Amino acid sequence: MGETGTGGCIFCEIVAGRAPAHRIDENERALAILDTQPFAEGHVLVLSKRHEPWWDDLTEAEAADLFALAHRAARRMRGRLAPELVTLYARGRRIPHTHLFLVPTRSGDVLDRHFNELEKIQERSPELETLRSAEARGRAARRLRRD
Q: Rounded to two decimals, what is the model's pTM?
């Protein structure tokens, strides 16, 4: 647990206790900390304790702990910060170590505006038009269904 042999990874350093962080909660395979560049008060990052760039490459147990901790932290946010919703998304490009963003979100705030703009792109972009047809969605469904 908590393998941190990847030189230069700030999240590995935090997991190992060698770098400072505002720790919120943890379980066997995941750690929740406050983001140092928050979108909102209480913006939390939930980190895998093992260095793995992509969340879908975690073991089932690691993924279960990651999402269980995210669930627990989101419920606490809702109870104590009273947002309209807690936005959850996974990223990993800037810091290639699995982490989930949990952001307490309210109508009209910066993240709400961002996702509203993404929805407009999703619904109206001519570039995405070919993906919207029933035929295209059927093709994708066939490729993704469990055999």
A: 0.88
DSSP 93-123: SSS-S-EEEEEEE-TTSHHHHHHHHHHHHHH
The model's pLDDT over 33-82, given as tens digits with 9 standing for 90+, comes to 999 999 999 999 999 999 999 999 999 999 999 999 999 999 999 999 99
Q: What would the pLDDT profile of 76-118 be if each residue is shown by its tens digit? A: 999 999 999 999 998 777 899 999 999 999 999 999 999 999 9
- CA–CA separation, 6 vs 4, rounded Å? 6
CATH 3.10.620.30 assigned to domain 1-106? The reply is no
* Residue ranges of domains in the chain: 1-106, 109-147
Task: Give the separation between CA 15 and CA 119, rounded to whole angstroms.
Answer: 35
